[in-house]
Task: structure prediction
Amino acid sequence: MGVRVFDFRCRNDHVVEHFVDAGIEEVECHCGAMGKRQVAAPRSKLEPFTGAFPGAADKWERNRESKMRQERKNLENHGTYK
Result:
């Protein structure tokens, strides 16, 4: 399955990270108690200003500019934005 980093929490509320095989559910904590593997929060990278995923704001901007060009062209050729 492969070695990965997992968080483990013992009954004394210590949280530690260990590189272990994906099948390992418990490890010994530094206090001697057994720590159970915790469900990790998903990792996602968001843009700091919009909160969108990277590239989403850029894609919106490109699409908006394309739409504006088309509307300007329609206005020049047909007298309407559509």
Remarks:
- The two ends are 56 Å apart (CA to CA).
- The chain has one helix and four strands.
- The mean pLDDT is 85.
- The chain has two domains: 3-37, 46-82.
